[in-house]
User: Fold this.
Amino acid sequence: MITTKKGIRYVLVENHDLPYVSMQAIFLAGSYRDPQGKEGAAGLTARALLRGTNKHTYQQLTDEFDLLGADINSGASGMYSYVSGGVLTRNTEKFFELMSEMIMHPTFPQAEVDKEKGLMRADILHRRDSDSALVRYFFHRFLYRGTPLSRPVGGTLKSLDGLSPKDCIAFHKQYYTRKNLVFVAAGDITHERLEALLDKYLGDLPEGKETLFQAKDLPKPKGLHVLLVDKPNRTQTQIRIGTITPGWQHGDVIPLFVANTAFGGTFTSILTTEVRIKRGWSYGVGSILDLFRERGSVGIGMFPKVEDTVPAIELSIKLLRQAIHDGIPAERIKSSKEYMMNRFPFELETAFKRASFEVSVFLRGKPKDLMDTYIDRVKKVEPKQADKAFREFIDANDMVIVVVGPAKDLEKPLRAIKGVTEFVKVPYDSDLK
Assistant:
């Protein structure tokens, strides 16, 4: 990561094969920084940047970008807010001018903010029609409850009602600053040219301070905690099973990724073999690690028939406990390593993917040399190291289980799962508190 004369950090991967530049301005504050009761503030602020500036209305701005043949988008995630886009090389400076106008001088007109709030409400209602989206939403809300990580990027219907342009102005003033900015670029532009444009168009941002979210205090569940999201008239359920893990800065976590890939990360993994191939309970099943700097999570997902739901949950937990206690067969570890090494180049196949990977190293606290050493790190993992990481990082006795499906068929058998210490039932159209 490089810093300009005016203190703007940036990552650039040059590629002059095509006359095109891809860019993303990242501000280190997303929904995790939403004020309590103002969930959705980061998302609304980012989305409304395009809705009008001190020089252009929303329609004028979109027309200007269209005339450049440019893509432009803005939004937020949990960790950060962003403005991203791409443009032909010859139009790069005009693109910077318009993008900086969005970033530095948004006006957040009431009527336009209300339109964005309407779109965010529509997103919430649309999510209720998607069982897979519902289980992802409730899994994060339940696993991270009581912490900023549980705050939904899109807010809730109730919190959106309470948001106003004043909230956007306050969020923008606090977090859209130079020290909170990381700029990503890739394509047909040089370092000298990019630095000049950054300092010219974004160098006058208020200095501010860095507010990168640190996920330090994430309470780990004790026992099995079940959340049943009641959605009647379903013949199939959506399931997530997971727990809190250490993060990237805990130490060498590559063995954990190797073990998890062997357990549930490929079509030949333990989970896929037992749940899908042998029993036919779920066409899709897998286990995913999502690590921040200090903490992270592991999540097992599947979508069986209603009648297979509890057996699939019990089997998955049993398989995880066996893998932790007995270890994973060496041939599976070897296969998962080959898969990870063969797949890694696809994560870097474009200039923008390489630039984004470098930024993820900073955001998530990954080893600084990971891009260059990843394959060697994976290659060196021994089966004993992978088994040790699984034992140390994951506790299959302390997990949350989230199920989207009909309560009339599922409540009793879910409550009867051995080790359940908490059972919560909510309607699918509610917002978990």
